[in-house]
Structures are given as C-alpha cells and as structure tokens.
Specification:
The protein is mainly beta. 0% of the residues lie in helices and 74% in strands. The protein has strands at 4-5, 7-13, 16-24, 27-30, 33-42, 45-53, 57-64, 69-77. Strands 1-8-7-6-5 form a five-stranded antiparallel β-sheet, with no helix packed on it. The mean pLDDT is 96.
Length: 78
C-alpha cells in the first residue's frame, strides 16, 4: 500500500499528540485505542508512527511534527 495523506482529528496536550478520528476514503473512523506509538527522525523532521485500533480495523499512520501532515501507511481488518 502506497502511503496516502489523510485528515486526522487529534488533540495536542503538553507536547503529546492524541489522534481521535481519521477520515479514510470519505469515511469517518473513530479510534478506540492507541496500540503503539514510536518516533523516528527523517532529516530534520520528527515522525511519530501510531498504531490505532477502531471497532473493525487496525491503522498505522505517520505524523510529521514539522509539517503537521498525516499519512496512512496501512489498514487491516481485525
């Protein structure tokens, strides 16, 4: 799967990013659980990778802290 840009509703508190909903292919997905968060650097950018669980699927998304862009890396039915 090629990474695609997605819109994410998230809140930011004291430097912590918490995704709440994703807009994937014109469908609003509510996040039930954040399974894992990792961070890495790509050049000057810090990238946070989230594994997110909804009622029916598991999503992996990247958040670029420098550009504030979200990318959907994968989605899997559970």
């Amino acid at each position: 799967m090629e990474p695609e840009r997605v819109n994410v509703l998230a809140y930011f508190t004291r430097g912590v990013v918490t995704p709440i909903r994703l807009l994937v292919k014109n469908r609003l997905v509510t996040i039930k659980k954040i399974v894992l968060v990792t961070k890495r650097r790509e050049g000057l950018s810090e990238i946070l990778t989230f594994s997110l669980q909804s009622e029916t699927s598991l999503y992996v998304v990247d958040f670029n802290k420098q550009t504030c862009q979200w990318k959907l890396l994968s989605s899997t039915l559970i």
